[in-house]
Amino acid sequence: MKQKRRIVSNYFMNRKQMKCVLIDDEPMDLMALSELMNTYREVEIVGKFHNSIEAKDFVNNNKVDILVLDVEMPELNGLDFIKSIKNVEHIILISSNKTYAADSYDYNVTDYIVKPIQKNRLDQAVDKVKQFDDSIKTSSNRDFAFVKDGTKIIRIDFKEILFIEALADYVQINTLQGRYTVLATMKSMQANLPEDDFFRIHRSYIVRKDKIRVIEDNMILMETKNIPISRSSKQEFFNTFNFL
Amino acid sequence: MMANDTKPKLNPKKPVFSLDLLKEMGGGNNRFVDDMLRVYIEETPKTIKKLNDALLIWDVIVLKSMAHKLRSPSAMMGVTKAVKLTEFIEMNASELKKKDEVKMASIDLINLINLVIKQVKEFLD
After folding, report:
1. Per CATH, which fold does A8-134 belong to?
2. Does B71 touch chain A (CB under 8 A)?
3. ipTM for the predicted complex
4. Which residue of B lies nearest to A25 if distances are taken between CA atoms?
5. Pick from A28, A35, A119: which is nearest to B40 by CB?
């Protein structure tokens, strides 16, 4: 499965509690999970489900920051469940088996916990979520952001970005070091990048202005790619430049 | 691992479960421990019945699934032998040459869990 990377789109959101959904078909596990998750002040449990099909509708129609779910469930297992949802920032997988741990990397989960869930192990998982969240908040007035890469969080310096391209539900951040495919919208990306340095030149492109090599007619030549300038953006774009 | 390695020697009077992990999870919340025990004695017999039915008709998929389902509650109840038996069943049920061992392990598991249920009921009373 192709690995996807996610970015938190609401960098500036002043979040009091992270909204959490718990899914486990085993009643004792769900109860235990609920009891343990309730001990975190930063977490608000907004949904508890024994049935993953019912949970899918809820998760896709509500804002969920943390999803904690079992892997082995009837009808729709945890891994297929992850494929069927979007816009959940952090996923913590739980299982009685260690065997899915390696696969979980392909699903961009924040953590993988083997049952029975112990408080100190859950503390670590919630800390990972909080660290990521704090990093995002800290970076909001700086010149970098973080993207999730499997269980790793990668820092991207804004000055290394060449351009950002829209790809359906994702955006691709093209940097000097490589490309990162991230679950985000162009609008959210634009909102979180320094206005002076970046310009949305086209519905599908945001460019870093100091990485532009040549502008010719309605095209911009970047380091590696020619990018079209939309007619509606052209004048505003030129107004941002100081010509000699 | 052979099923016999994990064969529990059942002593009906000796407690086979431990509340240590549940107490730790509950962080001093006795009601949580009590609720968990009540869920255990309500839910586990259903799983045991399905496991038994699967054993009678040798439905490997259900057998593995029910063994799996029993693993986490067994671990939470501190019944280490039951956890090992569920692992053995899940790992070996698909291997025809281990059918007899898996059958034996399943029977051992059923007997052990039934004893846990009986003891938990007595504890709650």
Report:
1. Rossmann fold (3.40.50)
2. yes
3. 0.87
4. B69
5. A28
Q: What is the pLDDT of residues A90-130, one digit of tens each?
A: 899 999 888 877 777 777 788 999 999 999 999 999 988 88
Q: Does domain B20-124 have CATH number 1.20.120?
A: yes
Cα dihedral: B44, A122, A112, A97 (round 10): -30
Q: Which residue of B has its CA nearest to A39?
A: B27
CATH architecture assigned to A139-238: Beta Barrel (2.40)
Q: What angle do CA B15, B20, B26 make, to 5 degrees?
A: 130
Q: What does the domain layout of chain A look like in residue ranges?
A: 8-134, 139-238
List for chain B the helix, strand, coil content (%; round to 5). 80, 0, 20
Which chain A residues touch B68 with a CB distance below 8 Å?
A: 72, 96-97
Nearest CB to B76: which of A28, A39, A97? A28
Whether A108 and A5 have beta carbons less than 8 Å apart is answered as: yes
| pLDDT tens, position by position, A223-232 | 778 899 988 8
Q: What is the pTM of this model?
A: 0.67
